[in-house]
Sequence to fold (111 residues):
Amino acid sequence: MCSRELFRGCSNLRDLQLQNNFLRQLPSASLQPIAHHLHTLDMGENSLRELEPLTGFQQLYGLRLAGNRLRNLTAETFAHSLHIKMLNVADNLLEHIDLSTFEPLKHLKVH
Fold:
């Protein structure tokens, strides 16, 4: 099965947990069929080293990236994810975060 067809027909899927799967990158192509209506995405405890810009995730309000190997967060990372309210990037290897990384996240809650 082609990875682009993995979630085809899953239009009711709102919450996706992909933690603890040894993933090295966000499976963007696989997630495209559900990206526009996904509410929460858990990519924690994987092996993500970088995060490409999250385009197409217009309804995403919860994103968990804890326990990965992310080193950088750029201004483009969350530029298209304006509805994120909950973001967890704890326990990564962050060395650099652009000053404007979190500017687009106007709904982000601090707990």
Q: What stands out?
A: The helical segments are 28-35.
